[in-house]
Amino acid sequence: MATKSRVVETSFRFGCGRYIQESGAAARLSNEIGHLNCRVPFIIGGKTALSLALSAVEPGLKADGRDYSVHVYTGFCCVETCEELMATEAFAKADIVVGIGGGNVCDAAKYMAVKSNRPVILIPTSSATCACFTPLSVTYTKDFRRAGSFHHDREANAVLADMDILCKQPERLLAAGVYDAAAKLIEIEQRVRGIPEDEVDVGLDCSYALSRRTYDRMLALFPAAVEALNKGESSKALYDLVYLSVAATGVISGMARGSNQCAVAHKIYDMSRALFPDEVKNALHGEIVGVGLLAQLYYNGRETEIEGFRAGMRSHGLPVTLTEIGVAPTAENKQILYDKIIDSTAMAGTTKEEHALLARALEEIW
Question: Number of structural domains, the chain?
Answer without folding.
Answer: 2
